[in-house]
Every structure is written in structure tokens, then in C-alpha cells.
Amino acid sequence: MSKTIVEWRPVAAEAEQSDGGPWTARLAGLARDALRGPFAIVISFVLALAVWQALSTWVINPYMIPPPTVVFETAIPMFASGEILGSVGISLVRVLVGFFMGSAVGIVLGILMGRLEMVNRLLDPIIELMRYLSPTAMIPIAVIWFGIGETSKYFLIFWGCFVFVLINTAAGVVRVPVGRERAARCLGASGLGIVLKVVLPSALPDIITGMRLAMATSLMAIVPAEMLAADSGLGYLLQTSGMLAQTNRIFVALVTISVLGFILDFVFRLIVRKTLGRYMMV
Amino acid sequence: MAPAPLISVRRVTKHYQAKGGRYVALDGIDLDIAEGEFVCLLGASGCGKSTLLNMIAGFEKASSGTLEMRGRSIDSSGSERMLFFQDAGAALFPWLTAAENVRFGLKLRSLPRKAQDDTIARYLAMVGLAEHADKFPSQLSGGMKQRLQIARALAIEPDVLLMDEPFGALDPLTRRRMHEELLRIWQQTRKTIVFVTHDISEAVALADRIVLLTVGPHSHIAATFSVDLPRPRQSTDPAVAALLTEIEGTIDGGAIGEREAVSS
Fold first, then answer.
1. What does the pLDDT read at residue A253?
2. A51: domain range?
3. Residue A184: closest CA among chain B residues belongs to which residue?
4. Which helix (H) or strand (E) covers residue B194, if one does?
5. CB contacts, 8 Å: B78 with chain A
6. Alpha-helical runs (H) found in chain A
7. Among residues 99-138 of chain B, which lie with CB inside 8 Å of chain A?
8. A192 and A254 inside one domain
């Protein structure tokens, strides 16, 4: 795998090899090779599901943690009836609307903050304070301002997104090499041309990083928003399943959210690579 | 009477507000640069030679004194004065190919597409990058990046190249090749070049005239050396060796090493 959370050092693996009998060593060697291969993800999931299944069957009360087979059985009719996809669709639209609004405002304000010292001095202290207010903290006031309709959901996602995009954009804009900007000026660029043709492309890798963080935040923010102030979406599905104490349906919703987040990030990175690849080279 | 200089720097000083008072970087610089001349500003790190170069480029303002080009005051950057950087990786546009980097300045001049293509081909060929036109800067070596920066600069046909230690980050062998290339291009195009360096042998290898600055603060011109020797100059040539010795002697004599008190 190219990207894992912890970078494993081979030294530890070799130390392991020295003790134990010959057949255990061989088994350990096999396992190590398998996990370094291209099927590591599959092995990871299969093992996790097996352990989960075993625990929920023999150790833990299956009502508390329903085994994968039960989650799967629950999911099939929920998919067949369109309940899952309907909720996913509703939440996805909210996430995307808020995400793009937040990103747009974050990019514009970030460029202004990165370029104009006055704007930076005026806004920086306020943003430093505001970034501790999570979307969840803003739910009550959002409901009062916008009601429980779509607008309050857009606002909450927007709120979760824009600070990430803003901070990363401003950092990227400040980091644009002085030499590059001066070279562009000597070549005849000026004013808005500098911003659009030099600053924005130079800061794009940072902006994209901010947008990926924001995308993850949107998915974390949509759930509480829909739990407290909605009658549809994934958060609402979680909320109603919780009220009816249907742990199997809760697990279906949790797995759906995880997979949705993973797919969104994957698609986002794919689009970036296909359309903005040349800007990602440093 | 000598012809009017292309660039004239008169009694230029530059100071900054720093902790503990005013820091005077440059103090009383007088310098004339003729059209087509290759001038090296030679000085220790921190002597203010880059600041002087950036003032000529129009990116920094003098605290007092005047800078003029063709008799007109320099108060902003302009494409007749092309600044040129040591860190080519930062100065180039990494998201554009070599050809697109050169095109950047041509597009802003709204040249017809065909003329752009011809100019790009001509200057990439001049610096020996014709086969690398479609490569991105990250795919080029350090020396190639510098050559691309030269091509991009020359394509907009500036009058003056202002080069800030352009080859300082290159290995000695590549640097020698870049010196040869730069001299060849200079002889071909007859641009005026102001070249900042802290390397005595580099200055001696390249310049028509070497302007030696004292170490800062209160940096000023310690001495100027006219170099009327044929190129390419070999360090084994007695005349070149004598000049190197003379400059080193001036430096060791205290002109560049002296430190004056900071005025407050």
C-alpha cells in the first residue's frame, strides 16, 4: 500500500523472525508477505469481519453489536426499498451544496487574507476564535436563523468547510515564492492577472488539501445536523433507528456513512488528478 | 564625451527600520551602466547587492537618491528590465511546460499564435532546450531550469537582464557550462547584464566591469575594475590571475572587510 497510517519499519519484522520455531517463522513470513501484497486491503477487511462475526456470535451480546451477517441481512431490504440510496442522495446534495459554497467563500477570503495585510489583520483574530465553533455548536442558532429546511443544513456544512479552506488557502497564498511573482511582473503580468495566473495556481495544492479536510468535515457535520433538525437524510436515519433501538439499522447507517466518505474522497482525488494534475507538481 | 548611460544610479541609500534603530544597508551608491555592458556586482553575503539589483528592477524603493533608465526615473518594475533568480524552481511556473513558460510573457503581449510559436522555438533552441519543450520544470535538471529561465526572459526581449546569483546553486561543472552559454548568448543578443555574485572568479570570468561593494551595514562601492581581457578567460592566463590577485588584495586590504559603526 502506498499510504498507510503508520509507516512500518522492516527492522521490527526481522527481529520477530529470529525467535520462534521454523514453522512459526515460516507462517509469520507468509503473513508478512501477504500483507505487503496488493490484497492487503482485502485481507484486512476479511479478517476484521471474521473477528467481528466471532465476537458478536460468542462473546458480545449481538443486540449491542450485531454481527456482519445480520447487518448485511438488514441492509438488503433497506437498499431494495431505496431507503438507503434516498437518504444518501439527500445527505449528499446537502454536503455538496455546503461544501462548494464554503470552498468558494474560503478561497476568495483566503486569497484576500493572503494578499492584503489589512484584511489579514482585520479577519485573523476573528477567525482564530470562530474556528472553535463546530457545526454542531451552530445547530441551535442555525435552526432559529434558517428553520429546519434545507438552508440550515447548507449553512452548517458551509460553516464546517469554509474555515478549513480559508486557512489553507491563505497559507498557500502567503507561500507563493516572491521570485515567481516578480518574474511574472517582469514578464508583463499585473493586478488580477498576477492573482489568477500566478497566485491561484501556485496555491492550488494547499487549497486542495483544505478542500479534502473540508469534505471530511462536511460528512461529520451532516449527521448531527440531520439528527437534530431534519426529517430526512443519513443523520435522520440514524436518529430514528436509535429511538427505536434498532442497532442493526444503526450499523447499516454507520457503515454507509463510512463508505460514502471514502468514495467521496476517492472521487475528489480522482477528479483533481485528472483535471488539475499539472498544478499538483511542485 | 562618453554616451549617456543606460542606467544611472545616483547617491542611492537604503535603510530599514530594525530592532534597535535604523539599519543602513546601502550608503551612497553611484553607478553608471552602459548599453550592452556586462557588469558584475561583487560583494559578501548581506552587503546589499541584491537590494541594489531589486531597486534597479523597480521592486524596491531607494530611501534616498535616484535611479534612472534612459533618463527616466525607475519607480516600478517593467518588462524592459528582467529580473532573474537563483532559485529557478521557484521562479518558473511548475504547472506549465518549458514551452508554456516561455509563452507566458508572449501571450501577455498578445502576439499572434504563429509568432509566439516561432519565438518559443527560437529561444528554446538558443539555450539548447528544443527537445525538452514539452517537459515540466520538475522534469528538468538545475542547469536546464536556469537555461529555461534565460529563454523565458530573452523571449520578451528586455533591454537589461538583472541576474541575482543565478548560478549559485549549481555544481561547479554545470556552472562553468552556464558561464560559457551566458557569454555566448550575451555576445549573440548584446543585452545589458547586471550580474550579482559573491564569487570573485565568476565575476572575473564574465564581466566587462566588476563593481566591488563593501560589507554591510553602510555598504558602498569599494572599487571598480575594468576587465578588458578576451573571453573565454582561463584562470591560468597571467592577466586573469593578476586581476584575481588584485581584487583579492583589495578585499584583504580591508575595503570589503571593514565594519563601520551602525548609526542610530
1. 95
2. 10-69
3. B105
4. strand B192-197
5. 186
6. 10-18, 22-36, 40-54, 68-80, 83-115, 117-130, 139-146, 150-174, 178-186, 192-194, 200-228, 234-243, 247-276
7. 104-105, 108-109, 136, 138
8. yes
Q: What gap in Å lies between CA B49 and CA B87, rounded to an integer?
A: 17
**Which amino acid appears at position B234 of this protein?**
Q
Tell me, yes or no, whether A74 lies in a domain. Answer: no
C-alpha cell at A174: 502567503
- Shortest CA distance to A189 belongs to which of B160, B58, B158, B104? B104
pLDDT band at B169 (very low <50, low <70, confident <90, very high): confident
Joined together, the cell numbers standing for residue A127 give 477567525
In contact, A223 and B142? CB cutoff 8 Å = no
- Do B138 and A281 lie within an 8 Å CB cutoff? yes
d(CA B167, CA B146) in angstroms, rounded, equals: 8
Residue A164 lies in a domain: yes
- Chain B closest CA to A188's CA: distance in Å? 6
CA dist., res. A254 & res. A219, Å (int): 12
Tell me: do A175 and A47 sit in the same domain.
no
Q: Cell 523472525 belongs to which residue?
A: A17
Q: Cβ of A185 under 8 Å from any chain B Cβ?
A: yes
**What was the pLDDT predicted at A9?**
63
In this predicted complex, what is the ipTM?
0.88
Q: Does A191 touch chain B (CB under 8 A)?
A: no
Cell of B217: 551595514
Q: Are residues A31 and A151 in the same domain?
A: no
Element containing residue A212 per DSSP (H, E): helix A200-228
pLDDT band for B16, please (50, 70, 90 cuts). Answer: confident
- Residue of A185, A187, A275 to mutate when probing chain B, most B C-beta within 10 A: A187
